Amino acid sequence: MKKKSGLKLNSLAKIDFRSYTMIIALLALWIILSLLTDGAFLTPRNLSNLFRQGSVVAFIAIGMVLVIAAGQIDLSVGSLAGLAGAMAALAQVRWLPAIASRTGVEWIASGWPATIIAVFIAIGCGVILGGWQGLWIAYGRVPAFIVTLGGLLIFRGSILGLTRGVNIAPMDPTFQLLGQAYVPASLGAWLGAFAVALILLLSVYSRINKKRHGFPVRALWIQALVTVIICSVVVLFVVKMNQFRGIPVPVIMLLALAAVFTFVTNRTQFGRYTYAIGGNSEAARLSGINIKKNILWIFMVVGAMSGVSGAVLTARLNVATANAGNLFELNAIAACVIGGTSLVGGEGSIPGAMIGALIMASVDNGMSLMNVESFWQQIVKGLILMTALLIDVNSRRTED
User: Fold this and answer.
1) Taking a C-beta distance cutoff of 8 angstroms, is the pair 152, 329 a contact?
2) Is the distance from CB of 248 to CB of 178 less than 8 angstroms?
3) Model pTM?
4) What pLDDT was estimated at residue 345?
5) Per-residue buried b or exposed e for 119-139, using 16+ beta carbons within 10 Å of the residue's own CB
6) How many Å apart are CA 321 and CA 201, to the nearest integer?
7) Are the CB atoms for 231 and 323 separated by under 8 Å?
8) Secondary structure class of 63 (helix, strand, coil)
9) What whole-number distance in Å separates Cα of residue 305 and Cα of residue 321?
10) 182 has which bridge partners?
11) Is residue 104 classed as helix, strand or coil in its secondary structure?
12) Which 8-state DSSP code applies to residue 346?
């Protein structure tokens, strides 16, 4: 009996309760907001809007996980997203029509060609300017805080210079699909079924692979329970979205990128090097890791994600404004910290950041439904960030 009890305790000990605390907090927040809004918060329409609006910051949070995990910080991502979105808008409204009128190549000024060019301009802008900051940080040895603070001012000033403070609109109808379209219900159901099948396959493969290499595994019933819960969440998500108009296209894009970068951080050399640099940069250097090169790549990645965010934001609003992306950097950092990314580096996860971004978006959405004044929203989000930091610092002290 004692042996069996010991096995049960060991199995339970393998559950990472800290990872599930965020999910419990999110569910509790949703229940509270639903009660305070008389059920309006959990309606399919509002949840669809919540996911669509929250995806803009979540794109940046994906890149920010890499930045913070490497022991760096980026305060310019919001301004860079706004600048990238303005570039995409200007390409559609001014640049491409001007090129078409001069060259006679009319097809590049509208439809999918214009949309693809605008998106590439936004992402390219993010990659180039993110890499430019990375050069200052990695090779110029200037602290990331100072470089990206300067970048924030430069990019924000560039937006004002390009737009002259005037809204740039309207966007091409095809481009608007990136931020406003929904996946048909039938296709959403197929995507949900594919996701469930993939989750089951990965769960089985992971267990078999760990056993083959002699790594400890969870008790079978625990792993089965976790897998069933995850699959149930996927099914519930698809059902809820299909009750309104379907899954929003920005959410599909976000989930795809989150899956890609989860693989990158967990399964690739670049991901392992990122965490090694943030955990102990001197040890990483002595082990042969090219720290400068990797930091440059990290800032190029977060720049690319800022470009994606800017393009989706402009498509959703159908306009580029001078204040687009304002405070996105703080929301992205808060999402990462709430999701378990350590500000001292060496630790963080993409799924955790996604949950953190959803918590921040839920607070904004819920308080808007309750007609709470905007200054209170900023105060509450600031308190949430401070509380998350307090919990993170004290939990690490306990572990030490």
Assistant:
1) yes
2) no
3) 0.92
4) 86
5) bebbbebbbebbbbbbbbbbe
6) 45
7) no
8) helix
9) 19
10) 248
11) coil
12) S
- At 217 the three-state DSSP class reads coil
Q: What is the mean pLDDT of the chain?
A: 90
Which amino acid does the sequence have at 113?
Answer: P
Take residue 178 and report the two structure tokens written for it.
């990136």
CA distance 300 to 16: 32
The two structure tokens encoding residue 334: 């808060």
Burial 354-389 (b: 16+ CB within 10 A, else e): bbbbbbbbbbbbbbebeebeeeeeeeebeebbeebe
CA-CA-CA-CA torsion sign (139, 142, 144, 146): negative
- CA-nearest of 260, 287, 290, 271 to 351 is 260
Model confidence pLDDT, tens digit, residues 209-256? 888 888 888 888 888 988 999 999 999 999 999 999 999 999 999 999
**Distance between CA atoms of residues 274 and 294, nearest Å:** 7
| DSSP label at residue 234 | H
- Average the pLDDT over 61-77 and give the result: 96
Domain extent listing, the chain: 53-174+249-399, 182-247
Which pLDDT belongs to residue 55? 95
Please state the rounded mean pLDDT for residues 261-276.
94
| Opening angle at CA 362, ends 321 and 229, nearest 5 | 130
Q: Region 286-314: what's the mean pLDDT?
A: 96
Q: 362 falls in which pLDDT band (50, 70, 90)?
A: very high
7 has a pLDDT exceeding 50 = no
